[in-house]
Structure formats: structure tokens, C-alpha cells
Amino acid sequence: QGVLLTGLGTFAMVHERFNDKEKAYVVRRPVFRLEMDVLYLQELTFPTVVIPGDVQIKPLNYRLLSRATSLPWHVVEGCVQETILLYSFQLRNRHHLSFAFKDIGVLSCEDNALCMRFYHECVTGLESKASWIALLHT
């Protein structure tokens, strides 16, 4: 239910309970917990995200990405690691670039705050029954 991108952070799907006046909802929504070296995050704030202990976190599957891209797995792994390192250096040098994740969202920095903004389709794809509640709380 979660994927670790070493040096950057963890993407996960969590269940949360929300109460309406008439009904209680349990919704699934995406979260991102930043796990970058604080050396790169000087003067930046970012939200603290708690991923429950029952969420299974696995490292990014480079072999699966290798099959999807027709590139050797070690090339895919090197590209991902170098991209994360480059992004980290850009943040450290106060170049606040956005980092887009296809079909997921954008990690961006505005007013010295680093945050993950999930695409509407990502949130509603996880939750069809109460997607409006999941959207409001993501």
C-alpha cells in the first residue's frame, strides 16, 4: 500500500474516517511523507505526515519499471537516484523547482513551503464513493 523512493519520501494510501451529520465515511486517500536529508531542506517547511504502522511500505520496484521502459534495471535505478539527488541539490541551492510524478501529483515549493499536491484523478481513482471528502482532506 506504499512505495518508498529512497532519498525523497514515501507515497502511501491511507484510510481515514470522517463523520458527516448523517453518516460516517471511511475514505482512501493518497499521502506523501518527505524523507529527505535536512541538509537539503534549509529554511523550508513541510507538513508532517503520519503513515499508520499497518500500511505495508515497499521500495520502488526497479525491475518492474525496467520492464515497462525496456531499459536495464540498473539504468532505471541510476536514473531515479540521480534525479532525486539533482532535485535535492536544487532545493539546497534555493532553486524551488516543481517535481511532477506522472498520474500522481506535483511536489512543489511555494513561499518556502514544500508540499505534495495530488492530481484530482489520483484521489478520485482511489475513492469512488466519497471522493469529495477525500479531495477536501488531501
Q: Strands, helices and their partners?
A:
Elements: E1 2-5, E2 9-19, E3 24-34, E4 57-59, H1 62-69, H2 73-92, E5 99-101, E6 105-110, E7 113-118, H3 120-126, H4 131-136
Parallel strand pairs: 1-4
Antiparallel strand pairs: 1-2, 2-3, 5-6, 6-7
Keywords, please?
138 residues, alpha+beta, four-stranded mixed sheet, three-stranded antiparallel sheet, 32% strand, globular, CCD81, CCD81 protein
Kindly describe this structure.
InterPro entries: CCD81 (IPR026295), CCDC81_HU_dom_2 (IPR040673). One of its GO terms (cellular component) is microtubule organizing center. Strands 3-2-1-4 form a four-stranded mixed sheet. A three-stranded antiparallel sheet has the order 5-6-7. It is built from four helices and seven strands; from the N terminus they run E-E-E-E-H-H-E-E-E-H-H. The relative contact order is 0.20. A hairpin with a 3-residue loop joins strand 5 and strand 6. Helix 1 packs across helix 2. The mean pLDDT is 86. It has helices spanning 62-69, 73-92, 120-126, 131-136; strands spanning 2-5, 9-19, 24-34, 57-59, 99-101, 105-110, 113-118. The longest helix has 20 residues, at 73-92. The chain is an alpha+beta fold. The chain has one domain (2-129). The chain starts with a strand and ends with a helix.
